[in-house]
Amino acid sequence: MKIKVINPNTTWEMTRTIEQAAISVKREDTEIVAVSPELGPASIESFYDEYLAIPGVLEEIKKGETEGVDAYIIACYGDPGLQAAREVTSAPVIGIAEASMYMASMLAARFSVVTVLPRIKTMLEEVVANYGMGHRVLNIRTTPMCVLDFERDPIAGMEMLRQEGRRAVEEDDAEAILLGCAGMADFANDLEEELGVPVIDGVVAAVKMAEAIVDLGKKTSKHKTYKFPEKKEYIGMLTSFGSQ
Amino acid sequence: MKIKVINPNTTWEMTRTIEQAAISVKREDTEIVAVSPELGPASIESFYDEYLAIPGVLEEIKKGETEGVDAYIIACYGDPGLQAAREVTSAPVIGIAEASMYMASMLAARFSVVTVLPRIKTMLEEVVANYGMGHRVLNIRTTPMCVLDFERDPIAGMEMLRQEGRRAVEEDDAEAILLGCAGMADFANDLEEELGVPVIDGVVAAVKMAEAIVDLGKKTSKHKTYKFPEKKEYIGMLTSFGSQ
Amino acid sequence: MKIKVINPNTTWEMTRTIEQAAISVKREDTEIVAVSPELGPASIESFYDEYLAIPGVLEEIKKGETEGVDAYIIACYGDPGLQAAREVTSAPVIGIAEASMYMASMLAARFSVVTVLPRIKTMLEEVVANYGMGHRVLNIRTTPMCVLDFERDPIAGMEMLRQEGRRAVEEDDAEAILLGCAGMADFANDLEEELGVPVIDGVVAAVKMAEAIVDLGKKTSKHKTYKFPEKKEYIGMLTSFGSQ
Amino acid sequence: MKIKVINPNTTWEMTRTIEQAAISVKREDTEIVAVSPELGPASIESFYDEYLAIPGVLEEIKKGETEGVDAYIIACYGDPGLQAAREVTSAPVIGIAEASMYMASMLAARFSVVTVLPRIKTMLEEVVANYGMGHRVLNIRTTPMCVLDFERDPIAGMEMLRQEGRRAVEEDDAEAILLGCAGMADFANDLEEELGVPVIDGVVAAVKMAEAIVDLGKKTSKHKTYKFPEKKEYIGMLTSFGSQ
Amino acid sequence: MKIKVINPNTTWEMTRTIEQAAISVKREDTEIVAVSPELGPASIESFYDEYLAIPGVLEEIKKGETEGVDAYIIACYGDPGLQAAREVTSAPVIGIAEASMYMASMLAARFSVVTVLPRIKTMLEEVVANYGMGHRVLNIRTTPMCVLDFERDPIAGMEMLRQEGRRAVEEDDAEAILLGCAGMADFANDLEEELGVPVIDGVVAAVKMAEAIVDLGKKTSKHKTYKFPEKKEYIGMLTSFGSQ
Amino acid sequence: MKIKVINPNTTWEMTRTIEQAAISVKREDTEIVAVSPELGPASIESFYDEYLAIPGVLEEIKKGETEGVDAYIIACYGDPGLQAAREVTSAPVIGIAEASMYMASMLAARFSVVTVLPRIKTMLEEVVANYGMGHRVLNIRTTPMCVLDFERDPIAGMEMLRQEGRRAVEEDDAEAILLGCAGMADFANDLEEELGVPVIDGVVAAVKMAEAIVDLGKKTSKHKTYKFPEKKEYIGMLTSFGSQ
Hints:
homohexamer, alpha/beta, Rossmann fold, four-stranded parallel β-sheet, 10 strands
């Protein structure tokens, strides 16, 4: 099967990291295609970046419809555009936040998320609430590092995650740690060993969820919410998103 | 004061309807500027349309920053891009869904929303939950008419709203009706008279909320969630959304 | 338009402070009438005071019906008697707690309340829950000062608010501060400047909400919950509250 | 032990009915004193009546402090003034709504409330939410009969309760019925026999709860929320409620 | 009346302690029979123990049906098997957690639970949520002592409860303390005196609730959820739990 | 990898059906071992059956620890004993209810459950709430057929599911259907074709989730909640569940 992993930001170094993470856990017969959109922000650290990354994500989904894609993964922890993506394809589309939370829920009763800048906290609180995970999430821990800092200085990144991860276990009494950013997969295994609790990276969780769903031949429901969008005109730069 | 009302879709006939509604309730010293973005969908009836309307909304906010705008209104009932919009300006930004719900809460204990196509229901349920209004909203009633149908055939539109509005009062025991689409302002007064309960149009509610907040000199908080976005590169069609 | 601001306690010095706050933000064509009831407690710091302030509030509303009042404000942060007040008039009635929370929600994603004595905390928690604001309110911070202490010793009051406000920003990461008592309006602007986040006083927020609603000609819904009370006999001191 | 049952309305016929219900279940060594306040409404069917009944309730609690009362019951289904009552005494104070819901929760997984006029529904929804019983209560069923109608025409009252009770069992699949008004105790046993599910009258539930708590020597907590009210001046008709 | 108190663990010393607590508060005409099951764990400190204690509890309920029992109490703070127990008898069955929380709710607005090992916290959080008490419970405080430690070394146990109880009052601002284990009844009175807030032991609370319900002649509802189990075959060690 | 599927009831015909369902979706390199416990009920249709099935489930988990099992599935829709099972192994343990709900959440915004007897409804409502899925589940639809009826008369079973499934789509507007019983896997595909929405069987969903988690090498967290149970004595029939 072919899984298209969309890194909603346009930093291809990060896309490569994500691709490596995805490939490292895929089954032999799974093909991973990891891409960044051709438009949008270099990283996502605000609602502004989040929403402006979505056109690129949707374009990649639409392209995927002619590329024989069996499932899509949106590889950014806010799951940007997830519900819209489900409208434009009948293939399953999986967000890394939801994948990580559902997987964590099958391994641990309570957990904490460790993520990037403090400003992202409100967005993740809403994500957690929308997935019904409010009673499971003990804390959303932020760091002073932005998304690309983890890419640029992985040693400092690891140290930061170690620090907050340890505090999650010791202060929150967290039973698992969720890495709240797509580029952190590299750190998961080392961190897990150090902290002694499951450390879940959303990208790898999502790859396995995608394989699971595709194996079953399940498709996105086209009844009510995720019906294909109504045909209509789009104008300006977004003309190509419309349909006649 | 100058209030910029952004109709997130690109149908200028609807923008004119919205503008008229806004002007009809503004104070003498308030200037209303109603616009549609230069890019995006002709109407919004799915998560797809919703998200793809946001770049246009954000562009209009950014333009507004050099136009002496005192407050912005996002005139589509899903409040598309509201949180991102708050990041790019320190002027207040008000969504018509939130404005209508807060105003309704000061006039009625329980209410129902009447809106367009059934597929929009999940989106509005999430909006209601995010605003903490779940205990107040009795029902979200949909119609078989899409957004532009109300524009094209106002007589059928009025009849449909009358029908669902009446059922809201009789079956839900609704104490007020919220019109769940920006283009419905014209119908509000007649409907209110007929049904005998407050009928709230979001656009006019938002105009008054904007005047209220600007009068007080209050600005969007720039602490944590709504800080200005981090400077970063954007590519492709969205290059202009980046900052150096 | 004429707005009657009812300070539910009987301390006229405080009523004057509240009146000044209201006048300072009213529009030119708005008339503010601020009163204390002729019966009831000198201040409200318990459920006991809260409930015993309500007869006076309702009497003032009833008087208002012959005074050409267009909207009422209940100026005590527990919004005492708000729902009953809505039953006895078809004019809008606005509580300062609801007004401040709705306004804050349009300016900040998360906020904290700073109020008087610790015993008031449970009451405000219930108010917050009833308005669906539980996910927005980070903390309800109390002080060792009672209501009238702020009146008597404004310098100490300001210092106390400054202290708790600063802790709200630094410890709760609050994006706005709500002043949880009607007599604190004087402190709002200075505090806002100092803390760098919006500081919302409920009285001024309520005045602007009232103007907004009256401008639109909206009335309290008389369907179901806020119907006029059934006619019936009242006895004892409260005989005048009955109807034949 | 001496239990003072306060019927918050001033209709002594109803107080006698309540007293009979209380006496019919009390233990031999329990003394029941049932009273109506000397001030207030003849019946309670709105927030207006609810709040205006509270001064009378509080006066009766205060009188009780010199009458050797061991526990108080507030016998109206909205539990009017319950939290204030707990402030003015260290004896336990029990509301009939809470007593009936807690007792029902020990006998049935899900239940419905049958009560008087439709307008009361919002009030009872808030009561249910404040007691954390939202997941247990299937429906709040109203009737076209007001409080005193049940007193005046018990045959019609019984028929109405039978009808709504039956629909609660058949349509809601209710496992118990709660009688949402103090004057309905007489109907409970017959109804229970007819419907085949527990029918809980709040007055008798509260009497037994009161005996239970007094037996244990438990008192209302005087830490934080229910501390005695601060000493302060009251004026007008309510002067006697103040303290010097 | 005859109340059968079932200590779900098989440590008879603890059953004796529980029996003493029950007897110390029972009414003269109440007979207390306290038992441990003939099968199951010596103590309950995990979901594993919890579930494996249930067959013994159910066996004791079934035996009770021929022993003239009027009400049952399940004396372990997780209320193990409570809903199943309600299926096999029409007598009331009361859990000590629910009894203590309902009683506490009539005496204090907010409270904390003090219990045994940290691992039990998730279980109690679920119990609290299922009873709708999430808004009342400030904290679930654990200790490093296991269930039987309190039995073996009551002096250390008392010291531990004193410590955590004091922190509950001082740090959580708790208005009452709930003892989250059946064997702690002995400590309640001393602790209450020391801390100055109600300290509620579930066993004594449950005895009084049972007396209250039996006095009223109320039975467990046999409609829907708590119907007698369907007749069916059981095999292996549990053959005797089946019916032909 | 080896997945042990535990049918908590002792009806081996049903276990074979479940095994077939599991085998039909497993990957080539996955080994499925499906068992019924040696003790317990022939079917599960009450809390009584639910709890009495758990000892058998736990015994099978314990046996599995020496059988080289990589993951366990509990194949009954109430997920009986799931949390206890997680305590006794470090291998992942997956319930079919949670697996089906998490999978459905990635394919459909809102869904309904179709299950067996009405009495099971409360249990499933609690399961849904504990998994945070209350906002997604539109309805829990019951049938007059018990668990084994579906085994004995599959034609009637299919008809019943078709009927309720259709009503779920038409009346609830459900976007997916969850089969609320382990023995219904056979019906899923036909039903899905007929209804045009995803029909999710928990057993097959759980098999794929198990493969996903085992692929990643993730284990149940042994921090706090799911630590191995404390060593202790068990007596009677359950002696073998203890440890020295």
